[in-house]
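Changelog-linked ticket: nicotinamide-adenine-dinucleotide example.
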Amino acid sequence: MSQPSNEPSFRESVDLMFNRAVRLMDLRPGLEEKIRVCNATYTVRFGVRLRGEIKTFTGYRSVHSEHMEPVKGGIRFSLGVNQDEVEALAALMTYKCALVEAPFGGSKGGLCVDPREYEEHEMEMITRRFAYELIKRDLINPAQNVPAPDMGTGEREMAWIADQYKRMHTTDINGAACVTGKPINAGGIQGRTEATGRGVQYALRAFFRDDEGVKKANMKGTLDGKRVIVQGLGNVGYHAAKFLSEEDGAPVVCVIEYNGAIWNDDGIDIEELKQYITEHGTPEGFSGGQFFEHGENLLERECDILIPAALEGVINLSNANRIKAKLIIEAANGPVTAGADEILRDKKTVIIPDMYANAGGVTVSYFEWVKNLSHIRFGRMQRRQEESRHQLIVDELERISRDTSINWTLSPDFKEKYLKGAGEMELVRSGLDDTMRLAYDSMAQVWHGREDVTDLRTAAYLTAIGKVAASYHAKGL
Ligand code: NAD
């Protein structure tokens, strides 16, 4: 999606937002520059023999900050990948990890490739070769740099990368922790695929528990009944749209894809639409709503919550004035440019910033990394013990009821829920919910507590930069 040429680049946008926040801080001389700059970017060009010729690909791995190691950040496959973008995304990872207290520095990778152009076995060759180039330089390593999925990549690519690492480090017992977002049968964790979309849902729930924030957005009530527009029905957008519409009563009235959009005033059946797009490659012809060829115009329609979940720069100087949503939650990284951010702030539109909104992915990646290093599934030791202790209480309550003729009974529904010990999925969701609530509270405290902070993004940057600065301070810098 093209941005007006008078707009700063994505990286400049991130820097502008960073600078806006540090002006309100009292950092030691030079520390501001140290935190802002990207430490290193490695560019790799490699050839793969495909369809009878050698095709050359360009990829990047950027390390923004090593105040904590390993550094962490996704790998993106897209034709739009460039050094500027990868560095901006790596910087966002530093702030994101700090905000949600995931003990990592920030990194990001990208490969200029359109995965839709290649067969599965060709993508495997390309991914393995890219991984080889990064692994041999320790740019993929459980102790130093741990990638994850991003746009254009998923479980499949992460499994190839993990396998490539193990082939090159056959005696590394912690090899599985070299990358997160793997399938369960290759060392993954329950709930990772849905994690970023689930995190968007938890972030919105946290927002709607904050009465002062809801008032600032000129809204009322809970998530129930709020009308939602989602851009991008990929991993993040699909899960966020599905959970909000199916579990929180928030109808998704519009889904925008790169090749058209669907509108339905009564709410779209997300599962049906997803299946339709998977089958036909386009939303055109879907019977559950009206089709629009030029989807991006629908970003400007009336709704309560706008969820850009596709790519950066989609809300920019050319359309910010016409955005009508009261609340924007940045499920994608950098969907609102610095210029648009200013316009929307003036309009009193509340923006839940990317560094918080999509932190569910890295949070559950952190859990996966810990699982891989501890070599045991979460819940394996305590689940049955927890169940038997709960059974003791239930048995005792039922005995008291019988012996004293108090005459009450525990409902079967309560008993079933209470007696079920937490498995990995329940623990992952609980850890994610806790993380999203605590991070929201830390931002909201700054947002509501300081007169010079008028928006959540600045509050998020202040909180995150404060934590990075504290790490440097502890190292004696
Ligand atoms: P994805 O590749 O699974 O999905 C992207 C979706 O956006 C696809 O359905 C694609 O067709 C659609 N799309 C592409 N261009 C579009 C356009 N111009 N208009 C409308 N739709 C368009 O990617 P994803 O993993 O869901 O990532 C989406 C965003 O979320 C990215 O900004 C990514 O950096 C961010 N993010 C992802 C994760 C994760 O765990 N996957 C974590 C944090 C942040």
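Closing comment: Example verified and attached. The chain has a mean pLDDT of 96. The CA atoms of residues 295 and 382 lie 49 Å apart.
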